[in-house]
Design brief:
Blueprint: E1 4-6, E2 9-11, H1 54-65, H2 75-88, H3 90-93, E3 100-109, E4 115-123, E5 128-132
Antiparallel strand pairs: 1-2, 3-4, 4-5
Length: about 140
């Protein structure tokens, strides 16, 4: 004799429950990858979100929240955008032990008459060269 499910709940006789599919759990990370164009998290194949380096996420967020757009796309306007990005990143580049160094900020005009920004730097925690962008 077995125990299973009946038409109205548990019964001394009945059909056992089918086995449940194996659950795939996504890995957790402290920072999630953010798409610089849409501003949304990037999903992974397990139904969670792709991981992102903590410093890269801080760079992306500092630049995203800085008002770096210019009304007129000109060499002067792009130079001003670069200066605003460098100013926004000061919390990571200033002090005795900056989080990032070897900062390269690129602002260029695209074919659709907008600007595209990218930031390249050395992450001093991992000693690796990283790039955030295009934004």
């Amino acid at each position: 004799m077995g125990y299973g499910t009946g038409p109205f709940g548990g019964a001394p006789l009945g059909v056992p429950l089918p086995p449940q599919p194996e659950e795939v759990v996504s890995d957790l990370s402290s920072s999630r990858k953010i798409d610089g164009v849409t501003g949304r998290y990037v999903p992974n194949e397990q139904g969670g979100f792709e991981a992102m380096d903590d410093t890269a996420q801080r760079v992306l967020l500092l630049v995203s929240f800085a008002d770096t757009d210019s009304k007129i796309i000109s060499p002067q306007g792009m130079s001003e955008q670069e200066a605003k990005i460098r100013k926004a990143l000061e919390p990571l580049t200033a002090g005795r032990n900056p989080d990032i160094d070897q900062l390269v900020v690129t602002v260029k005009r695209t074919a659709s008459q907008t600007t595209e920004k990218s930031i390249s730097y050395r992450n001093r925690l991992t000693m690796t060269r990283q790039t955030v962008g295009p934004i």
